[in-house]
Amino acid sequence: MLNDRARDAFNNRFVGSYLLYGIGSGWGRPQGDSSTLFVTQWTGTDDDRVTRLRVPHGVDRIEAMGSDAVIVGSDKTDLQFTAIHLAGTPAIAQRYTLPGASQGELRSHGFFYRMDDTDSGVLGLPVSGAGRAGWKHLIQGSAGVLFLRNSNQRFSPLGVLNATAKQANDRCRASCVDWYGNARPIFLHGRVFALLGYELVEGTIRGDQIAESRRISFAPGEQTVAR
Questions:
Q1: How far is Cα 32 from Cα 34, in angstroms, rounded to an integer?
Q2: Could you give the C-alpha distances from 54 to 34, 60, 92, in angstroms and in order?
Q3: Which one of 141, 203, 207, 211 counts the least CB within 10 Å of its CB?
Q4: Smallest Cα–Cα separation from 95: which of 83, 87, 103?
Q5: DSSP E strands: which ranges in 24-163?
Q6: Collapsing DSSP states into helix, strand and coil, what is residue 167?
Q7: What is the DSSP letter of 9?
Q8: pTM check: above 0.90
Q9: Is the four-CA dihedral 123, 64, 11, 50 of positive or negative sign?
């Protein structure tokens, strides 16, 4: 039976015919411990075996990445990504570490994966400083949105579209405790954006890098476009 802390930090996700679940840090500070990810196929087979995979971070986020999955979690200093190959016997396919970072947004809309073909795509996720407690995404903005390329079970960093240092204070005209998620990656008709509070930043991917091409601020009382 799970204790109160474990229940608050328990995460699960269906990806295709598989159920993945595990325990992370929840809305508290990263614990820095390794965790066990549990994977079981729930349909199309009589095999009820559960595969246990040890990951070097908490299971704070479970997302579909094409037909595979990616597990995101923080240790005490770094943000970790672990890809899980689900065909056949589930197994760890690849890992990526972003030093000195944690998730900037814990809710589901913070993550998005653009699948380019069956074996490749680009993921985006808001990021912030190391060791930040999960609940702080409600009152503190994200530092930027990280973009990673997934190609043939290999992660490669494209870069981060960053927020500006200035944070707009609308004195609660829109939201004192944000509920709609003010940081997220957006992929639209071949274009790439990062929503960061009152800023919308467009990026251009060339080769193995993403670079800012323009941004606009729609904070109350501001109409600022940078090109």
A1: 7
A2: 7, 14, 9
A3: 207
A4: 83
A5: 35-41, 50-55, 61-65, 68-74, 79-85, 91-98, 101-103, 112-117, 120-129, 144-151, 155-162
A6: coil
A7: H
A8: no
A9: negative
The whole-angstrom separation of Cα 166 and Cα 183 is 15
**What would the two tokens of residue 15 be?**
């990806």
**pLDDT band, very low/low/confident/very high, at 1 (cuts 50, 70, 90):** very low
> Is the distance from CB of 8 to CB of 27 less than 8 angstroms?
yes
Q: Are 129 and 108 in contact (CB under 8 A)?
A: no
The boundaries of the domain holding residue 81 are: 4-226
Strands 35-41 and 112-117: unpaired
How many domains does the chain fold into? 1
pLDDT grade, residue 102 (50/70/90)? confident
Per-residue CA distances from 187 to 85, 112, 165, 203 (Å): 24, 8, 24, 10
